[in-house]
Each structure stands twice: as structure tokens, then as C-alpha cells.
Amino acid sequence: MDRNTEMIELKGVGEKTRALFAKMGIETIGDLLAAYPRDYEIYKDPVKIGSAAAGEVCAVHAAVSGIVGEKKVRKLSILNINISDGSGSMQLTFFNMPFLKKTLKPGGFYVFRGIVQRSPDRRGGYSLSMDQPRIFSLEDYRKQMNQLVPQYSLTKGLTNQAVRKCVRQALTFYEFAPECYDHGLLQGNGLISEKEAVEAIHFPADMAALAQARKRLVFDEFFAFLFLMRKNKEFSQQLQNSYRLSETADTIRFLEKLPFPLTKAQQKVWQEIKDDLGSPYCMNRLIQGDVGSGKTILAVLALLMAAANGFQGAMMAPTEVLAVQHFETVQGYVEKYGLAFRPVLLVGSMTAKEKKAAYGRIASGEANLVIGTHALIQEKVQYKALALVVTDEQHRFGVRQRESLAEKGENPHILVMSATPIPRTLAIILYGDLHISVIDELPANRLPIKNCVVNTSYRPKAYQFIAGEVRKGHQVYVICPQVEEGEQEDLENVVDYAEKLRSALPAEIQVAYLHGKLRPADKNRIMEEFAAHSIDVLVSTTVIEVGINVPNATVMMVENAERFGLAQLHQLRGRVGRGDSQSYCIFVSTRDNQQTMERLQILNRSNDGFYIASEDLKMRGPGELLGIRQSGEFSFRIGDIYADAAVLKLAADAVDQLLLDDPHLIQPEHERLQRHLADMSANSVDFRSI
Ligand code: ADP
Ligand code: MG
Predict the structure, then answer these.
(1) Claim to verify: residue 412 and residue 476 sit in the same structural domain
(2) Are 598 and 558 within one domain?
(3) What's the mean pLDDT in 582-604?
(4) Among 180, 309, 441, 527, which has the highest number of CB atoms less than 10 A from its own CB?
């Protein structure tokens, strides 16, 4: 069994299961083993009911004292059962499991595991409850106790246990290829073998083993990324400027007409861009600026300068939704301020005919600004005189894609925009081939966003508040972690939540939903309708995390906020507070335990992405690193640029050393590494068109 072996070869995987795995992008054993757990559960010793902590996952060993109620609400059957263990009692609620009243014998002892909730009772005390706990015999529970049980991303119809079984089987029969690094490199960096690492990432013996496994896999990922980037640097450094651009009246007049002055920070960066464009060398610049700092306008200015000098510019965005939005922004500017753009849109969902027409206008030079997704770098696109390439939220793109777009022109200028806040030392490693400009100031007209962190009991109030904002003419985003029911039971999903909101909100409020599995054309349509305000409330996954700009939206409500990394929540928050109205963020946490609340409170304290990322890191333990993804901009599978900064440095040193010794990997001992990197590079063109 090797990495190309089909999933169907596993015992127990039939056509149906194969299709479920395929739905998650898992087609081969290699894919399966690379689908690392998103988290680990630890089954700790059962606790006494009397000392169970509210908001936390607990197991209690208790006797069923009786069935206290059974009812049907619409299609839902609800069963309430009481349990007690001498230290206290607790009420359990089960949904759609009526058969339990037969299986759970009164007086029988079981282990119940779930999130403990505490609510005030009529007598002024508190009562404890659990919804939908899992049930074990004491013996079964003991078997799993104190192990790290991997939790995989799932899809409806596929259980965690089924995935776990497949991974176990695959690990038993899988033949690992020989190590691609030499022994010295592994030892020098304190890395375990690939085999040990892959085994332990799925089934770690303990926390220390998990940390070792992560270290090796993170190193692999960073090493490949940095190697490819360093090669890129070779390619882009100090190229002669074939397009010396000079400032014209166009940009000056545009700036005069804009309804707002550039901030000091924007002015500084604009000057740096102008200097680059006119210098003897090609521009290779990164603009790093927090969400809402106004990066787009700088890109538009640079593109206008290219157009005014008679050349073409291109702007590439990671999602269609974002590309369409940029296109419309530019068209708005053209109409309002008479800018010298003849823009054309190029995205995957356009018809063949539309694309052909666009190719024609690009090749003839009739279009002097091309805005789109990775469709911009397809072979068929020929540019007439491409002088400037802008990529927005660039780390959604592999380095290779940036390179391909650059190759479309004759060494065009490169401008990259990013909202990921990273310290300068890391930025130099990660963007080694770019000069860095920082926008460290937000436009002055912004009112600080008001935040609150609440538990689910606050929902009715939140809905009232949302209805109120809509009545004032504003719009609202609601974010849920999953697309549809079933991937994980305890998480809210976009489809059902939209339905729930429709019935909770007044009928005249238009609710729609958006997620990555919709067809691109549908996504675009919904986003356009939201921008045009024919939708009031948009329920969405984090598809809208990147770049979306609808200044009329004033409320961002995030369900299961505890599931997101703080940096990601910060990006989401950046979708509101973009106009002059007061904006609000409501983070709803399903787990109101102290640690979760403290973590979320960091967002309450600060609006500074950089501070948030570093505070978040301080609070996370090694086990939490897998579940929580940092900013989506860096699409590392497992590495986390903040938490794994030390490994990033190790990998950077190792790459530099390798490039000194054998830059083209022609020495025989580097043959395997060369092949490995070629594979990784093919995979790094991982355009996630979410
Ligand atoms: P980001 O940096 O997150 O990409 P955008 O470029 O989308 O942010 O800008 C967010 C909003 O701020 C836009 O509506 C934009 O027109 C506006 N904006 C940009 N610069 C300024 C400024 N100097 N003063 C006021 N508003 C600005
Ligand atoms: Mg942006």
C-alpha cells in the first residue's frame, strides 16, 4: 500500500464510503494519512456530579434514577432522564433517541460524557444538565481513558470512528518511502522520522509524542514552502525594470476627487510604490496592513499609473466573490471619476464565450486592467503589455501561481497585499523575496467596533438587536462553522441556521445563506445581492472572511466562536465597521468555560490584529494547535506561523544551507529530496476556491 493506493482497497470501504471520503477530497491512502485530526479528545477520569464544572466536557459515572419526560416538538422527539451518584443529580436530554428509554435501565450505572450546563432553578439554587451526552459502560469507558482520541473532520454519513478505523488499517499496511532528508539534517534539528510522525499525529501516545509529531510535519511543510520561495527569490531579485512608470495627472486628479484623504500611512506606502515603479529595478513589494486599513485604493492607484503610462495591469484575488467585488469597485470609480481604465473581468464561472471575448480584449490591449481569480494565469491568456501584477490576500495562492502570473509579462512589477499581521522577523523569512511596506493606521472616520462575548442564552436578545439594526437600514452577517448538518453534531451549520433565523426574525427581513459548496455563479449572485442590499442578513461560512467590503453591514455575529482562531475572528470582525455607522460584533460561545471566555475576551480588549495574534498564542497549549486555524491567508496544512515560529526558523536555516551546498539538488544524495519537493510544489498549487 502506498500513497496512490485507492481508498476502496481498504477493508470495510465500499462504494458508499469511498464516495463519502471523496466528498472530503480524500481519494487515496496518501490523502487519508495527510488528513490530520482537527483535534484530540481526552477521556479523563469520571467526576462526581457535585463537582462537575459548568461549561466543560465532563464524564460522570451515575445511575439512572428515572425517566422524567418525553415529548414531541414538530418532528423532534425529546427524552429527559435523571441521573444521580450520591453527590448530586443531573438531567440529561436526548433528541430523536426514543429507544434509550428501553436501553437505559433505571438503577443501571453508566458513564455519561458531555458538556455540563448549569442553570438557575426555582428554589434559588442551580441545576445541572447535559444535552445529548455519549453513553458508555464503565468498562468501555476505561478502555479509552487518558488516551488522546483523534477527532477528524467529517461529512454527513461518515463517523469519526469509521475514519479512525480506516486510518489504523492504512497505517498498518502503508509502506513509507525512504526519508528524503539525510540523517544529519534530521538529527541536527531534533526531528523524528516521517513514519513515526505520521503514526503519532493520528494516534499520539501522549502530549509529548504529539508535539514531536507536529514538529516534524510542520518542518516538512515549512521546508518545502521556503525552498520554493527561495527559488522564486532567485528568479525575481534585482530584475531590470522594463516598465519605468512615471506619475501622471491621472493619479493626482483621482486623489483630489476621492471623498477622503489618504491616511499618513497610505501616503507613505503610495510614495514607496511610486519610487519602485520609477526605479531601475522591478518592484517586488508587499503591503501589510490590518483589515480595513485601505489597501485596495493603493492597488488601484498603482494600476492606474500603469494604465496611464499605456500599459496593462492585472489584479488577482483568491476568490471569485472578491474578484467580482474589486471589479465592481473599479467600475464604480471609472463611472464616478472618469479613470482611464478599460477593465475586464476574468473568472472561472464565466461562459466559454465570455472568456473568449475577454481573452481577445486582453491580447489586443484594448483592456488595460484585468481583474480575476487564478483564471488570469491560465495558458490561454495572452497579455499585450503587462507591466504590473497585484495579488490580494496573496498567501491563498501558492508561490508558483504568483510566479506564473509574473511570467505572463516580461518581468512585470509585483505588488502583494496581505492582512496577516506578522512580526518583521517572520515576515522576512516568509516573504523573503519582497520588500515590505506597512500600513499601521486605520482611516480616521472609523468608530471602534463594539464587541460582546456571550453564551447561547443571549440569542433571543441578539435576534432582537439584529432586527433593530435591519430596521435602521443596516445589514448583518452571521457566521457558522459548517455548511450543512452532520459534519459535526454540536456545531451550527449555515443551511439550518438560515432557516432558524427566518422564523426567528420578522417576515420582511430577507435572510440568505452562502457557503463554499455553492456554485461560483450562485456565490457571486448572492454576494451581489447582499452588496445591493436586497438581502438583509447573510448567514455564511468563513467564505466571507477575506476581503469582502460592504460598508452598510454593521453587525457581525459569530456562532461557535470558540471554534475559530482569534486571528480569524479578527478578520471576520473586519467585515464590519467599514462605514461611518457604529458597528457591533457578537461572539457566541457554546462553551462558556472560563478559558474559552478569557480567550475570546482578548478580542474584546483590542482591535489590533498583531496584539490579538500574539495574545492568542500565549493562551494555547500544544493540543489546541490542530483544532484552531490561524488566519486563512497562510494555507499551511498544519504549520502555524505564530506558534511554530521556532520551527520556521529551523526550516529557513536548513533551506539556506541546502541552497549553499547544492542549489539545484543535483547531487545524488539529494535525489529523493528533489523528487519530494517537486511533488510538494505540484501540490502547492492548491487554489482553494472557497
Ligand atoms: P483592506 O485594507 O481590508 O483591503 P479596503 O481597501 O477594502 O480595506 O478599505 C476598506 C474601506 O475603507 C473601503 O470602503 C475604502 O473605500 C475605505 N477607505 C480606504 N482608505 C480610506 C481613507 N484614507 N479614509 C477613509 N476611508 C478609506
Ligand atoms: Mg482587502
Answers:
(1) no
(2) yes
(3) 86
(4) 527
